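Before the break, one more example. Copy the sequence into your notebook; we will annotate it together after we see the structure.
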Amino acid sequence: MNKTILITGGTGFIGQRLVDDWVTEGHHVVIYSRRPDWVKRRWGGRVEAASSLATLNQRFDWLVNLAGEGIADKRWSAKRKQQLRQSRIDLSRDLLQWAQDSQQHFDLVLSGSAIGFYGSHMDDEQQGTGFTEQSANGAGFASQLCRDWETVAHEFDDLCERLVILRTGVVLGQHGGMLARLWLPFSLALGGVIGSGNQVLSWIHMDDYRRAIHFLSKNSVAGAVNMTSPQAVTNRQFTKALGQVMSRPTIAPMPGFAAELLFGEMSELLLEGQRVLPQQLLSQGFVYDYADIHDALREIHAHW
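Here is what the structure looks like once it is written out:
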């Protein structure tokens, strides 16, 4: 059955691909965006756009809230931290108020979060077998940001049949996300290990992410879901795999102190990590096409 879907973050790296899928499947998609004219051009009028919640008077089956300024786009100044909170937490509160005022009741709410919820860790041994959806909230700015974001999301419980919180890892795909920043330096043989290289990267291929979203929409899972591959890797393993796929040496390391000088507090995203396991998806029988980092990077390289 076709759904009427409202999505925030629909013009982003992940959102655009989800919208493409839903349009192909025949769903009616409305994107809440500050760029409504761009939306109309991008999808040739097949997708509606709204720049104000006040103009949304129809009933929606699904709400997909993926909006948020890029956490790694700029140094974490006090102003930037406030922008990150506003784009996630304040927007979610605005959506909640609109949904209450317009008496919405959704079949499904998919709400964004991130694996930063579990905190950042330099030593993989401190993480044991890894973090599952039942693991506790960690410490630090990114962790607090995710916790506050999820707290607002849980207020949708009374407005929907099912709430799923997407704790997303690093999404790997063509021409976007982390790889868009790494592709040029690695292609010029300027890539290398960052810091100790032992920090863990929990990642997922874009195609698996999209398939997992569609799997969850048809499943009965509720609550937090770790959107990661079951095979996390260290920074050293990732660097070696990307160099091999691109047939380039990886001999230009970035020492930890250099990352701290360049990025300040935000350097924790590069120097620390978390081993996150997608227990919910695996227990429900979701099958990955790209669970292995080498397979994932080879597929992305072939279509870059």
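The mean pLDDT is 94. The longest strand covers residues 108-114. Try to locate both features in your own notes.
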